[in-house]
Protein 1
Amino acid sequence: MRPGHTKFKCDSDGSFGLIKKLYRKTTVNCVGDIVEVVKRSSTAGLNKVQCYDNGKGFQYLDLNSVLGIFFKKLNGLQKYRHFLFEAANPGVVKVQMVANGTYYYTEFNLLKTRKTCVSEIIREIKASPF
């Protein structure tokens, strides 16, 4: 396929551009705002909204504060392009600035000194809705 072309016909995904265009100009604070953006994006009714469980199926969690209890921040996060996590090494992330496999990984242990297990982290996340 030639660069710049998609496997879809232009009319099947062209309406998504209408959503993107309106979304950029709209303040969105909740799922209801996104629903309104999709509804208003096409005057011809090309874009339809389908909410999970009639909009009641969303659960918001304050992950930043919970994960901050267990993990340290990775300084300079945006300069890395490739991240490797291994189940055998929890709390450790290996990073590369270029994701082509020819450079060595830099390894960071992000788990705070407090001993913890994955089930404790999950329990804490579920207990702290946003």
Protein 2
Amino acid sequence: MNATFTAADAAIRHLAPAQGLTTALGSLLRWLLPSQARPVMVRKVARGQTLVIERPQGQRVVCVKGTLWVTQDNDDSDYVLEMSRSFITTRNDRVLVHAMNDAWVRVGPRPGPKSSQRAWATALAASRD
């Protein structure tokens, strides 16, 4: 099973539970927010499932638990992430995250200066509610 995700989706679902509003708000937020301002998403990815991340530039993909295979369009390299390892996207080419076993993945802005790290931690805490 494939799931398409942009990092703004977590906030969109929290802010707008109605399907029509979720779609409209999602389109607006994806257009307005630069990738560094997008919220953090933490998600379980079942064994064999592939998560598709569109427009990922500046995002950090972290393996929270399990083992993930990560590849980015137009990149000759593939990456295997085990617990606490990460992959930072540098381009806007689509990223595929495939669970080699049941895993948890966190996708969010690449940490920067201390103020950005605090904002990232706050977004992560909010996503757990």
Protein 3
Amino acid sequence: MKVAMGHPLKLVVLEQTTSLHATFVVIDRHLKKNKAFYADRLPSNAVIMNSDGGVDMLKIRSTDLSCSTPEQSPATLNIPLPPQIMISEELSVLLRSRIHQQAADNDHQKDN
């Protein structure tokens, strides 16, 4: 974790996450107005806190680790592995329910 100051704040966030080679970024809910900026420019996985203390997925970067030969393995290509995050069971249940709710909302919108 690192705390930094500067102006404009959205560029400070972008500069720090890039220079630290961050793999996962949690953005404060007060920066929600810059959500599109972060989604387009952050090179890492990102979530943004919401007003009820939960998180909204902003950007999840997928990594294709399928390899056809040992020479192409992630170890030899120096590809960073996706981060592993340990979360509480309560947060896990909350995230699963939000994913299911978003999928149901999307299905409902397609039907209308």
Protein 4
Amino acid sequence: MPDTNDWNADHLNRLSSQDEIHVSSIRRDGAPRKPVTMWMVTDDGHVYVRSVKGVDGTWYRHVRATDLAHVAARGVDADVSVEDASTDAALANRLDTAYQTKYQRYAQQIVDSVLTPAAKASTLRLTPRG
């Protein structure tokens, strides 16, 4: 039986087909902050994002304060849990390849912004809640 916290195939396809998704960090009082437009990739049925500004970026610090967020893109509106995914070197390599493949039509300098050591250190897995 699949984990109830996995993305369903329809949502994964919708998210994957978009260049950009909107991710709102959730405040401690439960209110969403203004959404941030981000690139995302998938690996083995999981959704990942990276902060271009790394772990010191405002968005990253806000989202890690509660480890809760809301994702919106192409008909997907999902409350998600956020967890650090930056320590697995093999995953990091797969995500680098996924970013380079998905966003290859963009200038390399732009793609490189999600491949820096700082961005890699901010890799987060987004998992649907309930």
